[in-house]
Design a protein that fits this description.
Number of helices: 9
Oligomer: single chain
Shape: flat
Distance between the termini: 60 Å
Structural class: mainly alpha
Mean pLDDT: 78
Largest sheet: 2 strands, antiparallel
Helix content: over 70%
Amino acid sequence: MAVTTFGRRRARDGTMPLRAHLVEFRKRLLVSAAAIVIGTIVGWILSDVILDAIRAPITELASTRDRQASLNFSDVSSAFDLRFQIAITAGIVLSSPVWLYEVWAFLMPALKVAEKRYAAGFLLSAVPLFLAGCAAGWFVLPHMVVLLAGFAPDGSTTILTARPYFDFVLKLVLAIGVAFVLPVFLVLLNLAGVMSGKAIIKAWRIALLAIVAFTAIATPAADVMAMFLLALPMIALYFAAASIALLTDRRRRRRADRLDESFSPDPIPTPEQS
């Protein structure tokens, strides 16, 4: 007798033929694509709001530096291309809970119990941290635009081309979002036995130097407060990952000691004891 799950027939031993895998993959892909399309439509509706938010640093630049600054569309179709790119990016972000679940549901039957637990923990921790990192990148964005564009001489006009400017905003926000997820990878490496908690702690000087260098690049050099506010949570996340790794190593040692005690042979009695 076979068990049916989301259109796939699974045998008693848990195996599934290649055809059923392909059918399952197609259904998951269609659901994910439909979610992205719906999210893209919502993103297109919200494109004006998103574009105003992206353009806000340029307006701030014009007001604070007393110069003309504007977002330039170099050809006829560039405005449409930018809105479409904003809509697709917003659609992928808005539909991420759906397609992440579909990817998880497709891979879950092939994972072992421990691997399912690790993957679930990764998703539950990585997604909020990634969103928090994107929020931090959005926080430092106006400071970077004002400072970097402020190197232009007085009396000049700052004209930013729309497409490269949006790519700059997207890369900055995504880079800081990914940086916030890196501590989760450290925990996964520890769970997989690749890196111990002591090794993570010993590398704290290198980690601090890398974090400071990254925040110095991602934030204006003159804005020390923005650099501090960005570096502080990243440092806290690094040491939190190290603490989790140390606790995991301690539990492993205790489990190994209990196994050694349970499998150790009973001592041979001496003649006096017998």
